[in-house]
Amino acid sequence: MGMLNDSIDILVRGILIQNGKVLLLKRTPEKGGGFNLVGGHVEKGESPAVGLAREIEEEIGVKVESSEVELIRVVYRTKETSSPKLHLVFWVSNWIGEPRNMEPRKCLGLQWFALDELPFELATVAG
Fold it and tell me: What's the CA gap between 88 and 80, in Å, rounded?
C-alpha cells in the first residue's frame, strides 16, 4: 500500500561548503571505497538533525548545532538485499573547528572538491 515499514533505515548526510568547495570523505575499500558526504545512521531516539550533528563530530571532529542545519533533499531507496533506506541530506552552513579524519578505520582522508570537479567515484544520494 506504499506505507513505510518498521525496519526502515534512516541515514543523514551533511553538505559542508567552504570557499566554493564541498567536503567529501574517501572511504576505505571495506566501506565501499569512493567518496561520500559526512554522515551516517540515525540512532534510536535521535532526531535526524541531532543524529547528523553527532555523526559530523564523530567523523570529522567539528561541532554543529542541530538547530542550524537545513533539510534540502529526501531520497527513498529500496534494495532486494537490505531494508529500505531513507536518506536525508542537510545543508550545514556553520561549524566550529577544522575538519579532520577522526575514523581512520573507515575513512582514508578528507578532501575539498570544487562543485564542478566532483570525483567520479562519488557515492551518490541523488536518487
Answer: 21
How many of the other CB atoms lie within 10 Å of CB of 123? 15
Q: What does the pLDDT look like over 13-49, one tens digit per residue?
A: 999 999 999 999 999 988 888 999 999 999 999 999 9
Contacts of 37 (CB under 8 A, 6+ apart): 13, 14, 15, 22, 23, 24, 25, 89, 125
For residue 75 the three cell numbers come to 531520497
Q: Tell me what pLDDT residue 127 has.
A: 39
Please enumerate in sequence order all residues whose Cβ is within 8 A of that of 57, keeping only pairs 6 or more positions apart, or say none.
63, 64
Tell me the C-alpha distance between 1 and 113, whole Å.
41
